[in-house]
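Lecture 7, part 2: worked example. A protein chain together with phosphoenolpyruvate.
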Amino acid sequence: MPFVIHGLPVSQGIAIGQAHLVSHALLEVNHFLVAPRHVEGEIARLKDAAAAVRTELRALRATPTTAQSEVSAFVDLHTMLLDDPLLIEAAGKLIAERRCNAEWALVQQMEHLLEEFDVIEDAYLRERKADVIQVVERILKVLLGHPGQVPKRKEKDKKETDLGTIVVAHDLSPADTIHFKDNQIAGFVTDVGGATSHTAIVARSLGIPAVVGLRHVRAVIREDDVIIIDGARGVVIVDPDERVLEEYRLRRSERELERSKLKRLRTMRAATLDGEAVSLYANIELPRDVTQAREVEADGVGLFRTEFLFMNRDELPDEDEQFEAYRAVAKAMAGKPVTIRTLDIGADKTLNSGGPRTEINPALGLRAIRYSLSEPQMFLTQLRALLRASAYGKVQILFPMLAHAQEIQSALAALAVAKTQLKTEKIKFDDKIPVGGMIEVPAAALALGMFVKRLQYLSIGTNDLIQYTLAIDRADEAVAHLFDPLHPAVLRLIAQTIQTGTRAGLPVSVCGEMAGNPAYTRLLLGMGLRQFSMQSSQILDVKQEILRADAAEVAAKVTRILRQDEPERIREAIERL
Ligand code: PEP
Ligand code: MG
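Predicted complex, written out as structure tokens:
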């Protein structure tokens, strides 16, 4: 029977394919046999991992928080589960009996426990299933030393080879999604997530349709079900009949036709009807993304999210590896500006090991520049690599998530150290490399004076600016309806930053997802924005809007909109722009 599920549209397009169910990505572990002489070692590995989680939980309890009693309650419960002989001890026995690896034994034992939970009458106990899963995930994280990877599906497993693979998951981390760059995935759907989560951003960068926040999709779709994703409307159709399939195949080809027509705009200069030139830059996650940026003739790279180079691996990339990656982008863009952001790790972007500790509020914790400044050696390595790459193109350095003058000073001091070292070593670099800051914390937007004094350009990260202004977790589907780019407070912060920065003579760009949404192009133009940075897949759509707009006319209208307080009026006025 066909049925339809509605979620949050995060990446446009139509995908038709067969479901590939990914349980908790982390719980998809490999099974292998261990030699008899290694069995003891394998059991010890499991026990050590459990001990590490126990320490982690203890540390969590010791962290002062306003929700102390809730934290203590779950820490107690998780510690109790950890100590329960039915978990670690029983998994240890499985290792001994079946001579299997610790990860697999643990997941087997967990599944056995979960089955027992299913028949429990007591609703409270039944609900503790999620806690068992969480505890096992924590142990697996330690065992694997890294987050799970979405397993590749064997081609022969698919029923019909002309259909793509659609990944169906409870959740996908940005680290999982970046793997899709290697695998042929037609689209994905998840239970959780928000439209500006990094998972969604990666989907847009891949140009694959995705719908998130579907709540129970993982439970209602079966492996190999035929699915249609309508990424623009946030609709997922399961088991469609032939008539519906035909309709969507038609829509898909219409869209492909439209996209190919848009390609004609590639070589056109982006300028408004009244002759205002606009620069359109690409956001990239990996060096290989420059291919797409070049295809659409982007004016440069406006944001290279370097943290993706650091994910899904145990060892951090050393200076040479980073240098090669940055140089490759600088060279490929052949003299066009390439803005490379220093590591923005934390919140939903995590490292396999050595990343920030477990935090209650990771988005407010040791993230981005805060993390880099707390790891001076790692920061210095990245800065040296960036400087070295600057000898091969027009590289600019961008510091993320600045809020304090002290952070800018410390980051600039670290850059000065890197420069001095390279000079001593007689390694060439651009001594005048422009240094900019991301405006993505309301405090930064409100106290712009300290930024314009110390930096050469600004880049507004609307994803985080909205998250931090409205106190809405950008990755949480439960509050996604409140993540509002058009909230008057958000609009004023953006407009103010563009105007104050421009007046001070600093180039200002927007590199958050708002810049790539054609529905906001006129609004941003009217605020005075002349530099937009977005996923390459969006550049031609935004260019089309720019070519149709009159900058002076929209500026006058936007000035009036910014005086408005009523959300509905603002929304209507923006639609009419
Ligand atoms: C932003 O916050 O808008 C931004 C561009 O940075 P990221 O999405 O990587 O946090
Ligand atoms: Mg950000």
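The mean pLDDT is 90. The pocket of phosphoenolpyruvate (ligand 1) is lined by residues 303, 305, 344, 440, 461-464, 511-512 (CB under 6 Å). Keep this in mind for problem set question 3.
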